[in-house]
Amino acid sequence: MRIVEEVLAGSRLALSRAITAVENEYDEAVEIMQKLYPHTGRAHVIGITGPPGAGKSTLTDKLAKEYRRRGKTVGIVAVDPTSPFTGGAILGDRIRMNELTLDEGVFIRSMGTRGSLGGLSRKTMEVVKILDASGKDVIFIETVGVGQSEVDIVKAADTTLVVLVPGLGDDIQAIKAGILEIGDIFDINKADREGVERLNIELEMMLDLNPDKDKMDWRPPIKRTVAHLNEGVTELVEALEEHIAYLTTSGMLERRRLERTRNELLTMLDEQIGRYVLKKITESGDFDALVNSVQQRERDPYDVVNGILRRFLS
After folding, report:
1. Residue 245 neighbours by CB distance under 10 Å
2. For the chain, how are helix, strand and coil distributed in percent, rounded to 5?
3. Do 32 and 168 fall into the same domain?
4. What confidence score (pLDDT) does residue 191 get?
5. Whole-prediction pTM value?
6. Are residues 31 and 46 in the same domain?
7. CA–CA distance, 113 with 110 (Å, rounded to integer)
């Protein structure tokens, strides 16, 4: 398949075309993914999450440039809010990374959330696989910053970087949302602002409250950056490199990726079964009658759904 060969050879045009095919579910999309899959599993996937306004896009831009200085190729999946008019991504994140678009060793793709409450489109991981197969050493997934739904990123990344900023009240919100539970590394961005020491102390206290902290070999470090001034970025990259080294030597990387594969298979099964049942029940033409029977309280929805499953999946 020519497009697959070109992706494996590192063609940026083929990369764009393959991602578009997968995002839009073109006829050749499944075959593309099947042929690329044996070439995946080599990249370090880093998820960058945190509240809106934390400076995630600027930080991603600086991290990518630091990795390029170290001779590594970089892929960036910038998950932006979805336009209510076109369904596409509102390209705010990509605009902030404009300089990187001139670098042949960096590939940036903006994706819309497409209504996903977890801040990640269902297609995000497929795009990551395509970037991985194309030879990218490091792949960043920068989430949209939707607060309490951000925890989905832990299912997609090898390393999860949680970015917080002092002085916005987001620290307590993040703690409440459970974002701290998924962080492998924490970064206090905009660390030249007032309140950085207070936020640092609160993060340390929350980490101390973890009941499993004494059993853990990795205590998430807390770094500080001022991304727009490029301060602290080198130290943050060192922490990211230390974490992937820890995952590799401890065997945790293999376990995480095994769990990711398990979740992916279950998600695909859920989608395929849902599509199959929807197609069959639409073709049968009796779904409207079932809806009316539930609305009139003649039947309950649980009985109807169980009946549909028995009928089509027996």
Report:
1. 11
2. 55, 15, 30
3. no
4. 95
5. 0.87
6. no
7. 10
The residue to which tokens 């992916």 are assigned: 264
> What pLDDT does residue 208 have?
85
For the chain of 314 residues, list the mean pLDDT of each consecutive stretch of 10: 95 96 93 96 94 89 96 92 49 61 89 54 87 97 66 86 81 58 92 92 85 77 96 98 97 95 90 86 84 94 91 78
- Give the C-alpha separation, 196 to 282, whole Å: 56
Q: How far apart are CA 26 and CA 213, in angstroms?
A: 47
pLDDT at residue 214, rounded to an integer: 62
Between helix 287-295 and helix 252-284 the angle, nearest 10°, is: 100
Residue 237 is predicted with a pLDDT of 98
Count other Cβ atoms within 10 Å, centred on residue 129.
Answer: 21
CA dist list (Å): 205 to 163, 242, 277: 17, 23, 49
Say if residue 150 is in the same domain as residue 221. yes
110 and 90, same structural domain?
yes
Structure tokens at 109: 């793709």
The CATH number of residue 206's host domain is 3.40.50.300
Q: Does 188 reside within a domain?
A: yes
Distance CA 213, CA 179 (A): 17
Residue 245: inside a domain: yes
pLDDT at 278: 85
Residues 6+ apart with CB under 8 A from 225: 59, 62, 187, 188, 189, 191, 231, 232, 233, 236
Distance in angstroms (rounded) separating the CA atoms of residues 74 and 104: 10
Q: Do 108 and 198 have their domain in common? A: yes
DSSP string, 109-134: EEEE-TT-TTSS-TTHHHHHHHHHHT
Task: Give yes or no: residues 66 and 157 share one domain.
Answer: yes
Do 96 and 178 have their domain in common? yes
243 plus 192 within the same structural domain:
yes
Domain assignment of residue 259, yes or no:
no
Answer yes or no: is 295 within a domain.
yes
Q: How far apart are the first and last CA of the chain?
A: 37
Domain encompassing residue 305: 266-313
